[in-house]
Each structure stands twice: as structure tokens, then as C-alpha cells.
């Protein structure tokens, strides 16, 4: 609600730099190169997460997909095993399947 009440000229300058109120509020609190720098993307290290600490959680989601009967279970097992072994980066496919598994458990009760 508060952000909607801020006039546009306080949000974006004439050069297209955004988040002016936040940038000004952070003056002296964060390094200048970060405060005034360009926006940077963030790529989560999901490839490593699926091979490490999150693999049990991801596997649980994949089991939901395998139990659903929508996909061939041995193929999903192979996709995950090859990823965990470092043979192939299947992180995008695994994320899609795990998201589907989560959705199935939440909304279809598989």
C-alpha cells in the first residue's frame, strides 16, 4: 500500500534507474557499488541442491509423479540417478517434474 502512494518521480529517475527510495534509504548501509549498481540476475544453484541437501525432498516430489501413473517411473528414476551421479544436468527437467509432483499432492491428493 505504501509503495503505491509514492509519486513516480521518487521511484524512477529520468535515466531509468529504479528503486530510488530504497537506494537512498540504503545510503551508508551498503557499499556504494551495490547501492548504485545495475540490477543483477540470480541463478539458484539447483543443480547442486538436487545432488546434495535437497535431494531427499526432490526425490519425494518425484515419487508423487511416479505414483501418479502420468509418467514412466523407470525413466524418472533414470533422469534423477544420472543427475545425482553428475552424468547429466537434468536440473530443469527435475524441477518441472518435482513441481508437478508437488501440485499433484496438493491438489489431486496422489
Folded structure, characterized:
The protein has 110 residues and is mostly helical. Helix content is 58%, strand content 0%. The protein contains 7 helices and no strands. It is elongated and about 55 Å long.
| Uncertain regions spanning at least 5 consecutive residues | none
Shape, please? elongated
How do the SSEs run, as a string of H and E?
A: HHHHHHH
Structural class: mainly alpha
Overall pLDDT: 87
Percent strand equals under 5%
Compile the SSE list and pairings.
Elements: H1 2-5, H2 20-25, H3 32-35, H4 46-51, H5 55-68, H6 73-84, H7 91-108
Helix pairs in contact: 5-6, 5-7
Throw out a few tags for this protein.
single chain; elongated; mainly alpha; 7 helices; 110 residues
Summarize the structure.
The chain contains seven helices and no strands. The protein has 110 residues and is mainly alpha-helical.
